[in-house]
């Protein structure tokens, strides 16, 4: 079955504040969607709603296909060397070719470094390695360029573009516009409550 991500008439409330309402979107294989907006407008909240981690105040999300999320939390054991921390998930995710992600994200030389000692950008690259290894069709990326240097930003942009050109879906929440061919833009301000 083909991957799909649909959100219908979503409203989001955080605390006592209604952040946005009437937000709908639909993504099919090959689609890239950039979610834009100023600080605090609700970009991360929308990503969490799409991921099923936050209940919308109203509206519905439906998905077909597995989702992978990258946000500020790194789901790798901080006390393990990077190689072992990634290998734990490679076994669970049934990854057949972990070396590809290590090469693409230039992580080979960091495999013996405990995850907690990695720099911000190195951690972000490690998160992308795990995402690649999962081989899931729907990518939800919250500020994926944060902490990355120019070269790593370009690598990530290429990875996301490649994912979409191969039939994947990417929803990207970011202050910085990503160079993604044919990406649609969703400005959360347009749905401000
Ligand atoms: N658990 C919470 N309880 C109450 N308010 C919250 C909670 N989490 C976030 N908020 C508020 O919701 C608003 C939207 O937060 P969110 O992180 O979604 O914004 P954002 O657009 O991603 O911001 P940024 O660009 O700074 O990352 C903010 O005003 C924030 O303070």
Can you put this structure into words, describing what you see?
With 193 residues, the protein is of the alpha/beta class. The protein has helices at residues 43-51, 82-93, 98-104, 120-134, 150-165; strands at 4-14, 17-27, 32-36, 58-64, 67-70, 138-142, 169-173, 184-187. It has a domain at 29-43 and 66-184: 3-Layer(aba) Sandwich (Rossmann fold). Helices cover 31% and strands 27% of the residues. The strands form 2 sheets. Strands 5-6-7-3-8 form a 5-stranded parallel β-sheet, sandwiched between helices. The longest helix is centred in the last third of the chain and has 16 residues, at 150-165. The chain is globular. The chain starts with a strand and ends in a 6-residue tail after the last strand. The protein binds adenosine-5'-triphosphate (ATP).
Entry summary:
This is Heme ABC exporter ATP-binding protein CcmA. The chain has 193 residues and is an alpha/beta fold.
Task: Name its key features.
five-stranded parallel β-sheet; nucleotide-binding; Rossmann fold; globular; three-stranded antiparallel β-sheet; transport; ATP-binding; binds adenosine-5'-triphosphate; 27% strand; alpha/beta; ABC_transporter-like_ATP-bd; 193 residues
How many strands in all? 8
CATH fold call of the domain at 29-43 and 66-184: Rossmann fold
**Contiguous uncertain segments of 5+ residues:** none
Radius of gyration equals 17 Å
User: What is the helix fraction of residues, given as a range?
Assistant: 25-40%
CATH superfamily of the domain at 29-43 and 66-184: P-loop containing nucleotide triphosphate hydrolases
Which distinct ligands sit in these coordinates?
Answer: adenosine-5'-triphosphate
CATH architecture of the domain at 29-43 and 66-184: 3-Layer(aba) Sandwich
What general form does the structure show? globular
Q: Report the portion of residues in β strands.
A: 25-35%
The run of helices and strands is EEEHEEHHHEHEE
Protein name: Heme ABC exporter ATP-binding protein CcmA
InterPro entries: AAA+_ATPase, ABC_transporter-like_ATP-bd, ABC_transptr_haem_export_CcmA, P-loop_NTPase
Organism: Qipengyuania xiapuensis
GO molecular function: ATP binding
